[in-house]
Write a structure and sequence with these properties.
The structure is a single chain. By secondary structure, this protein is mainly beta. The protein has one domain. It has three helices and 19 strands. Strand 6 and strand 7 form a beta hairpin. It is globular and about 55 Å long.
């Protein structure tokens, strides 16, 4: 049985028209001879009203069929459909002799229809990506991550900003890989295109030391994993927000919509 590292992690989200937010994960890890599945849902019903559930058994993966992705998890009480609105994106975020990290943005913008338990149905725009990693994330050489998506069907924007000894930034304005973007706390600025996405009225979806929490749960399947993972990585602080995005182009309004973004510091 292989002892090499391989993580495949699906991320799916949606913000309904009324502002409720849902983030889902479906992941499979193969490492040190063990195979572990993980699923989680984070549901923001209203500001300061977030419900989080996760588990390590009976995990299902999203099913792709043409432009549609379906994911159901009876244990987490989620059943949804994400339909692609724009073309997908892909980038290699890290590559060495030890392995690589491939980012597949399967749906930069989705039209969603989702049920969460007995809650009212969610309809709105969402986003789907899948990370395929054959190298542990702590070997990528960064100590801060900013990520976000503005899932507007006419003006999609996605950003990944890694800072540290091996800093890297990938910002996609539609299908354009922008090389001169500035990723800040309250805006994403694209000077060569005279574009700025303002992030207004942020609401915290989740704020915790999530990696430490997940690793503690993995000890049953991978004894000693807490000793194999660097302490700075275990103590990472992760914050996710839902904000209202306003896109300006040359000083003129060019679109508005919900944004999900996060900051992780190691």
């Amino acid at each position: 049985m292989s002892r090499s590292f391989h993580l495949k992690k699906w991320y799916l989200d949606c913000v309904s028209d009324d502002g409720r937010a849902l983030i889902c994960y479906s992941a499979r890890l193969t490492w040190l001879g063990a195979k572990i599945a993980y699923a989680s849902r984070i549901y923001l019903r209203a500001p300061q009203d977030t419900h989080i559930e996760s588990r390590f058994h009976d995990v299902t993966e999203p099913v792709e069929a043409g432009d549609t992705i379906r994911w159901e998890d009876a244990g987490l009480q989620v059943a949804g459909q994400w339909t692609r609105c724009v073309l997908p994106l892909q980038a290699v975020l890290h590559e060495t002799k030890k392995g690589r990290v491939v980012w597949n943005c399967v749906q930069p913008v989705s039209q969603c229809s989702i049920r969460v338990g007995d809650e009212p149905p969610m309809t709105g725009h969402g986003y789907v990506e899948c990370l395929d990693m054959t190298v542990p994330p702590w070997e990528m050489g960064f100590n801060e991550l900013r990520w976000g998506r503005f899932a507007h069907p006419d003006a999609p924007l996605v950003w990944i900003d890694l800072k540290g000894p091996t800093s890297q930034q990938r910002v996609f304005d539609g299908q354009t890989d922008v090389k001169t973007a500035v990723v800040g706390e309250d805006c994403i600025h694209l000077p060569e295109f005279r574009k700025t996405l303002w992030l207004e009225n942020p609401v915290v979806i989740e704020e915790k030391n999530k990696i430490m929490e997940v690793v503690r749960s993995l000890v049953a399947w991978l004894p000693g994993i807490e000793h194999l993972t660097p302490l700075r990585f275990l103590q990472a602080k992760e914050t996710k927000w839902r904000s209202w995005g306003k896109l300006d182009v040359a000083g003129q309004g060019a679109g508005e919509g919900w944004v999900i973004h996060e900051l992780v510091t190691f």
